[in-house]
Design brief:
The chain is an all-alpha fold and about 240 residues long. About 80% of the residues lie in helices and about 0% in strands.
Length: about 240
């Protein structure tokens, strides 16, 4: 009885409800991202008034200690740091025999980078001239913030823990403030990164969960067919 119960697919109502909500969030984030993109391009790729206000605010509170502190999330969330953390996260999930969750996390990070990096080159918005962190001139969207958001959202969807949502949100805020404190990005670059990360992570999670469910249903159907065959033969023998 225990083995049969373990093979039985989980009820579909809750996962379906979560996926529907995730799809709505993904579409809303994608729409907001596209809208912000057109606003930025329509302004001639120049900083918006809110960007100049926030940049001036960050400049007014700039201190040597603050710069050192801001570099911590910048390094952790940089290319090398995120590669290391991604490998650790995906490998840990694989060792825990959660290959579908490993796929969701790995794909979310890979897709958000694949989307954001070319888009920054296409939009070609210049960073603040006083940037303390980056030499590459393009800034929209913020890659650090997009990857941080995608990672946080993917992990929160996988583990379903309130404290993971809270830590993830805190990490995204810290990353966003760090990027603007170092004048590596305008505020709207960071907002765009958050929107991109949300859209990509939720959509990837939905696709992976749908594939997982279909695979489970296929296995359940194959198992039922295999069990039915001996019974049919026995019936014929009678």
């Amino acid at each position: 009885m225990t083995d049969a119960a373990e093979r039985e697919p989980a009820p579909l109502e809750e996962p379906d409800a979560r996926r529907r909500a995730a799809v709505v969030v993904a579409l809303a984030a994608a729409l907001a991202f596209v809208t912000l993109r057109f606003v930025v391009v329509g302004s001639g790729r120049a900083p918006l008034p809110v960007d100049r206000w926030w940049d001036a605010l960050m400049m007014s509170v700039l201190t040597p200690v603050g710069v050192v502190a801001a570099w911590v999330p910048a390094i952790v969330g940089g290319t090398i740091g995120m590669i290391v953390l991604s490998v650790i996260g995906v490998t840990s999930l694989l060792f825990a025999r959660r290959r579908w969750d490993a796929a969701a996390l790995g794909l979310a990070i890979a897709v958000v980078v694949a989307v954001g990096a070319p888009m920054a080159a296409v939009i070609a918005r210049l960073r603040p001239s006083e940037s303390l962190a980056e030499s590459v001139p393009t800034s929209f969207p913020s890659g650090h913030t997009a990857v941080a958001t995608a990672t946080a959202v993917a992990l929160a969807l996988i583990f379903r823990r309130a404290w993971i949502w809270a830590l993830g949100a805190l990490w995204v805020v810290v990353m966003g403030v760090s990027r603007t404190y170092l004048h590596a990005h305008w505020l709207t670059d960071v907002v765009a990164g958050v929107l991109e990360g949300i859209a990509v992570a939720t959509l990837v999670w939905c696709l992976v969960e749908t594939a997982r469910e279909r695979r489970a249903l296929q296995r359940a159907g194959a198992g039922a067919a295999a069990l039915a065959q001996p019974l049919s033969a026995a019936d014929r023998d009678r």
